[in-house]
Amino acid sequence: MDLVPALEEPLKKVLGPPTAKVMAEHLGLHTVGDLLHHYPRRYEERGQLTHLADLPMDEHVTVVAMVADARLHTFASSKAPRGKGQRLEVTITDGSGRLQLVFFGNGVHKPHKELLPGTRAMFAGKVSVFNRRLQLAHPAYELLRGDSEETVETWAGALIPIYPATAKLESWKIGKAIQTVLPSVQEAVDPVPAALREGRGLVPLPEALLKIHRPHTKADIEDARSRLKWDEAFVLQVALARRRHADAQLPAVARKPKPDGLLTAFDDRLPFTLTQGQQKVSKEIFDDLATEHPMHRLLQGEVGSGKTMVALRAMLAVVDAGGQAAMLAPTEVLAQQHHRSIVEMMGELAEGGMLGGAEQATKVVVLTGSMGAAARRQALLDLVTGEAGIVIGTHALIEDKVQFHDLGLVVVDEQHRFGVEQRDALRGKGKQPPHLLVMTATPIPRTVAMTVFGDLETSVLDQLPAGRSPIASHVVPAADKPHFLARAWERVREEVGNGHQAYVVCPRIGDEEDDPKKAGKKKSPEDEAEKRPPLAVLEVADQLAKGPLQGLKVEVLHGRMHPDDKDAVMRRFAAGETDVLVATTVIEVGVNVPNATAMVIMDADRFGVSQLHQLRGRVGRGSAPGLCLLVTEMPEASTARQRLTSVASTLDGFELSRIDLEQRREGDVLGQAQSGARTSLRMLAVIEDEEIIAEAREEAASVVAADPELTHLPGLRTALDALLDEEREQYLEKG
Questions:
Q1: Does pLDDT of 725 surpass 70?
Q2: Has residue 409 got a pLDDT over 70?
Q3: Cα(179)–Cα(171) distance, rounded to whole angstroms?
Q4: Which comes out higher in pLDDT, residue 631 or 14?
Q5: Is 689 exposed, middle or buried (0-12, 13-18, 19+ CB in 10 A)?
Q6: Separation between Cα atoms, residue 512 and residue 495, nearest integer Å
Q7: Do the Cβ atoms of 533 and 482 come closer than 8 Å?
């Protein structure tokens, strides 16, 4: 919300080019306003020490602690063969826990003089594990003497703000930069209408910014936070409310299914009845399709809750009404799979214009980038003539050559993998805006849905169809208990022995291309202490086939294989010819092999919570119970390990997505997975601040209803422009 000229002043003018460059590149901060909205992550009290036991692994942390002891060691190395290498080990303490700091080479002299036992300081660096102990290698530090004039001035008051920092720019340097620009806060223009601010007892914006950066008491921090949270929620909800308002003005063709058409014929064929959830959600969708402005609906449901069935019935309803429906899938494997399963479900209803096709039948075509020229030409022809009522495809559907006879509905599978531009390009293929149904198998807590997809109506499928089996999940701590890993491979053999199949999932492929830090770079001793690269499909498959799974039929699957090869591997696995499939996350979505009952996820700590939940959903799809083993070398106290324990403890995707959000917090909710730029929510914790978001949504709706163009609210308009910089503006418009 970089509002007025003083706040739009580029940082390089105020702080000098070198600092400004680091702020722009590493923190996405370009103007004085950006810097003022870079809020402290937390506050340390001058007399108190950080709790060292809770430090997260692999993150850049800032801690306040006291030096317990410091020892200088000499050692021999390739650079210093005669035992002249120096290593300084400093132990810092918070009174209960300890943390090791290491400095190497010429970097030992200054800390050796300054970090004497009893010294208090702030330390910043990345937490790693070396010899099973937490350590910071070469941390930056700032002594807290409390006597020198400058330190006292800079850390005025007893509360020391700790800013989100990077290795290139420590928290205390950011604090000093903020001190420089703080006088500009007086010029910040308030986005919240005065009546609303007073009604809610919020402090004015300049006061909030002063209190967040230089609080004298904890009450100051509270005042500032409540005000800044409200700003974020309100401006964001105004953006979404304006978009809902604009969408409601768009025309669309109402699509109502014929009474004895394709949909009825399809329902009559179904060998089972729909769950109550499926019936309820289908009704919501059909009601939307029957209106004259475009449906925008998010369909979320657990892995395996039958979303594809609901989407297919919506597509059939649109075909019944004379339109065409397109389903967009994130990968070729998935597009092929959806095509196969839809054609299977529809039987002769998918054979429009062919011998043996039913009279209401339509054609179902698939369109992917790797199709042969003739097949592709035929598919394009079927679309433009309207012969094909349903098309399933990847990004290939979006190309200019693809034309529809009358596109009525777009279904997007796995929204988080589709850029907004792509969805928009597909929607642009309709004569009028088509209806849009977005499906996601990563359940999203209600508040997030309100924040991220505030312009989409949400439908939730939370019942699993009958006949689904429970999945048991366990963490396998490979470093602490190697025999657990050996037992994991025995379990896989047992499952195969009982006639079932298993997946083994690895984070990377293992051919040279996917190693970003090419081998051959010289590694410093502290890099050596860093973690090994993630396990790779090709290496693991080889080790398993020669070792613990010898004698079983093991195959590999990853994203860089030729599409035909991928398809062949999947077909063999689906047909039961392969015992164990070692794969990357290409199997994460939509792969359906009911006979696969076990999954071992290697380096499970390298995956996110929702990804683990997605992967796990690939087993237990038949009548036999599923087993998911999460293998990790992370120490028990690490947050990564806690994350895995929470995944193992519940199968409820909504519960997991809450845990995930509480742990990750950051992440640009607005441009979610689209912009990856700096986070638009700095203060608002989507899960904790449920009430604020709901209230802001109501206030925003009434403000926009009264004044859609915000003519009388220039401050709010300016704040919106700042929130919706180019990229986000497009994101919102395209939805």
A1: no
A2: yes
A3: 12
A4: 631
A5: buried
A6: 33
A7: no
Contacts of 336-339 with C-beta under 8 Å, sequence gap 24+, read 336/366, 336/368, 336/567, 337/570, 337/590, 337/591, 337/592, 338/308, 338/392, 338/413, 338/590, 339/364, 339/366, 339/392
> Token digits for 307?
């979303």
Q: Are strands 596-601 and 140-143 parallel, antiparallel or unpaired?
A: unpaired
- Distance from C-alpha of 582 to C-alpha of 495, rounded to nearest angstrom: 15
For residue 99 the two structure tokens come to 């943390």
CA distances from 245 to 250, 293, 444, 449, 455 (A): 9, 11, 24, 18, 9
Summarised one tens digit per residue, pLDDT across range 514-544 is 554 544 444 443 343 345 778 888 889 999 9
Question: 88 pairs with which residues across the strands?
Answer: 72, 103
In which order are the strands placed within the sheet that holds 363-367? 363-367, 388-393, 324-328, 407-413, 435-440, 296-301, 457-461
In whole angstroms, what is the distance from residue 595 CA to residue 29 CA?
52
- Spell out the residues 6+ positions from residue 175 whose beta carbon is closer than 8 angstroms to its own: 154, 155, 160, 161, 163
Going by C-alpha positions, the residue among 17, 13, 122, 141 that lies closest to residue 63 is: 122
Degrees, nearest 5: CA angle 238-241-245: 135
pTM of the model: 0.65
- When pLDDT is cut at 50, 70 and 90, the band that residue 597 belongs to is very high
Q: What is the pLDDT of residues 231-267, one digit of tens each?
A: 888 988 898 888 888 877 888 899 998 888 899 999 9
- What token pair was written down for 577? 């010819």
Neighbours of 486 (CB within 10 A): 12
What gap in Å lies between CA 68 and CA 121, rounded to an integer? 12
How far is residue 218's CA from residue 252's CA, in Å, rounded to a whole number?
A: 53
- Residue 484 class from Cβ within 10 Å (0-12 exposed, 13-18 middle, 19+ buried)? middle
